[in-house]
Write the structure tokens for this entry.
Amino acid sequence: MGRIKIIVDLARSPHVTLKQEEALELLECIEARHGETRDLSEALRIIRNFDEFYNMARKKFEEYLFIPKDSRDAILGRVVVHKIKLERNNDKNAEIIFDRRFDIEVLKKCLQEIGYSDIEVVRQTF
């Protein structure tokens, strides 16, 4: 696969845009390393049922789907996925916005595990 960018926005949340199958592989790898959380299982469910959630978001005129989180996980800092943006161009793409407290090193290791060798971290500034 090769090259991918992790964009860290002004709120310090990492973003990654992947095809549907790659996004599923990434989240499954993170789940294996980090453990299961409600937000992670909901994110997997949304991406597995891409077409249904894409159509639902378009009907509601929503660009991002906010992931339900367990309050206990939020307090303990175990939340992984903050929100997801589904896009349909030629492929089905998912932009995954991770929680700002999620360890970016786990994200890098899982991206390497699914086949990305050149990972660039870009931090947005004013």
About this structure: The two ends are 31 Å apart (CA to CA). Residues 20-34 form the longest helix (15 residues). Residues 84 and 96 are 5 Å apart (CA to CA).
